Amino acid sequence: MGFKDRKNRSCLPRAVFLLWCTLVFLLVSGFTFSTLRLFSTREGSYTRLVSKWNIPAMEVMSGDHSANPIITIRETVIFPDQVLFFLKYPPSTALLAKDDLNCVYTPPNSSAQPLLDVTPSSIEGGSYDENHHQIVRCPLDPRGGIVSLAVKHNNGNNLSPGPTYRWNSLAYEAMIDQQDNSTIIFVKGLNLGSGKSADPSKFKCIYGSDLTGSNNSALWADAVSVAQEIVRCRTPLSVLNNTTSNDSVKVSVKVAGRKTLDSIARVKNHHRQLGPKKKHKICVCTMLRNQARFLPEWFTYHASIGIQNWFIYDNNSDDEIERVVESMAGENHSVTRVVWPWIKSQEAGFAHCALRARDSCEWVGFIDVDEFIHLPSDLSLLDIIDSQSKLSSSSSSSREVGEIRVSCHDFGPSGLKEMPAKGVTVGYTCRMAAPERHKSIVRPDALNSSLINYVHHFQLKAGFRVVNLNRREVVINHYKYQVWAVFKEKFYRRVAAYVSDWQEKTNVGSKDRTPGLGTKPVEPADWSSRFCEVNDTGLRNRVLETFTDPKTGLLPWE
Fold first, then answer.
1. Which of 59, 138, 486, 557 shows a CA-CA span of 20 to 30 A to 546?
2. 134: nearest Cα among 49, 244, 242
3. What is the reported pTM?
4. Distance CA 504, CA 486 (A)
5. Whole-angstrom distance, CA of residue 502 vs CA of residue 518
6. How many other C-beta atoms can be found within 10 angstroms of the C-beta atom of residue 449?
7. Helix-, strand-, coil-residue percentages of the chain, each rounded to 5
8. Beta strands 280-288; 309-314: pairing state
């Protein structure tokens, strides 16, 4: 064998050795880079992405490597004045912050560059639901442009869009009633009217990923009741038995003679074990938008009279309500903020809350943040409720008490032109003489299965009755007509489904409207002196006596 032959044979192992070294180096460096470049840190109650190598967020999210999480727009819902994007994150992926995103506005039917990039009006700091979805809100383009969503520092590329729906015809929420395993679907677009029901035989529920019914993968179920915006159906066994999968099942409603409603609603059966005794005697449910500044006073006062649990349905607030709610939780009470982005759906929201509270609360009061339960008789709220429960068992009537109604006194600005520093209970002391309307404290297990309600009260099952409390025992101080800077916010949008917005020239004689105010938020010259017929300092005196710090003279919420 010559020298050249020996040289060629000896080069072959060396080349193989170099090839193996190169492969090992690439594998190790790739693993080290991917391991180091992403890690998460807790900030408050949610996680955010942190880039070890300062990589732009979109590069982290949309790379081709399977280890990189792909964040997508699951669905988009168009409201009259804003667009809601529902982002879907892979499991264990951290959530983006408001400053990571841009709302992008592009002319319709055009491939031109975007007209405008703006920061979202708000973004949920935590997951919207258990499937790791997040809501991003963008203003609607008044010029009719198309709104999309982009992650900053990504060369102008938008997130992949999902299906887009309009709010006026949509199945938007769903849940399974643990008492009878039926599915309850909250629907916009049935147009049944307040307190109205429909023939359930004309309605069906459809479950599955394909809700068009064009293939055999969908499951159908008969409706058992239909009223207002709520459809109740018998849940298919395969849905009830699906307790191992992490994914929920999409569901919608089909009305005879019409196409299946668009849907973003999903259900999952949790099989909660119901305890023999409810944890809380009395709870409160409210719905609000941008009223976080009033919560500390409202919460502190009601905790002192025996309220143990709060469900706060947040209707698109952008005033840092998460931080305020988090500060209110304590050892002897719990506070739950429920993200409820659905506009003009207060009746549906209260029905949802009644079902949610039923497992843990014997009684639930439905009041607003500007309403305070006042006890002039010095009796405790729990004593009053207990006495009504005992009347149920000792009364000659065979029907139990299922709802307690409390009259409301409406207070005016009381001569003030600026927000009272010590809060509404101390600042507003002049009211109308006659009570207007009422609010209710209900037993959630006494409600009619249709869940029909009129915001102020519910329909009850057969066998239950309503009692009206004497105003000398319990009354609600409703600080309805506050200083103009606060009151004018009511012109933005009414939350109830069956109440006209105040800037619309419809139902101008409704009791919901303010007498003599019209449809424009223009302050009358005598506003501060209106709605003042009786000087009432009862609750004011009690609040000052109970809560004033003897050293500083301050109230807890000052």
1. 486
2. 49
3. 0.83
4. 20
5. 8
6. 17
7. 25, 30, 45
8. parallel
